[in-house]
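To: structure desk
From: M.T.
Subject: fold request, one chain
Message: Could you run this one when you get a chance? Sequence is below, nothing fancy, just the single chain.
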Amino acid sequence: MAVNTTTGSATVTNSTAAQASTSAASSTDASDRFLKLLVAQMKNQDPLNPMDNAQVTSQMAQIQTVNGVEKLNTTVAALNTQFVQLQALSGAGLVGKDVLVEGNRMLADDTGVGHAGVELATPADSVTVEVQDGSGRVIDTVDLGALGAGRHSFDWIPPSNVDPAQAVKFRVSARLAATDVKTTALARDRVDAVSTDTSGLVLELANAGPVPYDKVKAFD
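Reply: Done. Structure tokens follow.
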């Protein structure tokens, strides 16, 4: 399994370098223009009504503030590039790991056992999982009993009349007394590779495809 960290990082680095170069050039040009205008203004000032020292000082302070902001932006951009690169390096250790993301597909392992998860908004005294085939027909039901609020993983052992290799989905329902509890189905997937873009670290999952790192609910 390949770890794609070079392409994304290089793209961000080149972009940041270009931005830094442009910012530095802009800062230099602004300073040069200001000094030329100031010198010209002083040469052509009325001797009987010379420029106010306070005005000159204020103008110089303004140009220094602009230069300082541009330098700060360049520094922040460089730090952001380093952060993205560090994310990619640390993300390489996630390759081969299982994760939980929002989704209702259930995948079976080498032994034929399916694995998935559910997130409950509040505690529930009854949680039921309906396993469905590709057409949406319910082929099995799993009773998880009472569960507390939060994330929970569960396993599904297919009955003898169900092919464990077939693609299945699942639907979760939960109740607390007579009230429905909000549920979020969580699919288990495997990290095949990692990459980076301008938004940060992206995990390439075996079944769900590219998923932003912040969309991962848990690592198993």
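Reply (cont.): Helices lie at 6-43, 53-91. Let me know if you need anything else for the meeting.
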